[in-house]
């Protein structure tokens, strides 16, 4: 891996020099835009909407559009003069229980590696944080953006997870939250039974990206001049008459799938292979809890 940032964790009077690495990478199949007739790559030009001239990259700047439509042009010097106290620091602000940080705030994950001179204080903070059972709330500036983040320990290494700011989280203002949607006790019991039947220890290796595998198979077939084999689409089962029947059938299907899985069959978990039937019946009204969006 190649580091993308160098700085230091600032923890009280302790400074820990570290390097930052991306902890994740996308595995999607990459495509280029091409001309359908001959496969030639499509190129785009940077053209100014005012004079119609092509603009070299060296003359491209960032602009902020005002409500009036006017554009404020910002230069690299404008960004360089911004007061980012955390430009090369990861400032530890506080420590807090991990469950108090809603995962919706997380944006991207990074690994932190200590520089040679920072190994001992790195291990000291790592072990102390791990024993505390908490996460560190920190502030860091990356790519001209200051972010909150958390520090936690994973496999002996600090993982820094950048966070969105509170005003970047949308409020789920959905009409049904203000409605008195009612659920019958039998439906709730059956739903809980389905959850219990499908419960288990999470192992991401149990699942696969079926779409990506099928897409790669299509590409490989075209490269080798073979006939493209269309993946089989499982037949849809008839929909249950009502919600309770759908839940009951789902529980039975999950139990059968789990029994088959225990019989030695590998691959994906049964619950992922056989989804619950959809209900086309009328919604059942039963007293439940209504809540308004925050």
TrEMBL record:
InterPro entries: DNA_bd_Ku70/Ku80, Prok_Ku, SPOC-like_C_dom_sf
Organism: Thermomonospora cellulosilytica
Family classification: Belongs to the prokaryotic Ku family.
UniProt protein name: Non-homologous end joining protein Ku
Residues of the Ku domain: 52-180
General function of this protein: With LigD forms a non-homologous end joining (NHEJ) DNA repair enzyme, which repairs dsDNA breaks with reduced fidelity. Binds linear dsDNA with 5'- and 3'- overhangs but not closed circular dsDNA nor ssDNA. Recruits and stimulates the ligase activity of LigD.
Quaternary assembly: Homodimer. Interacts with LigD.
GO MF, any single term: double-stranded DNA binding
Annotated Basic and acidic residues bias: 253-276
Pfam families: Ku
UniProt-listed GO biological process terms: DNA recombination; double-strand break repair via nonhomologous end joining
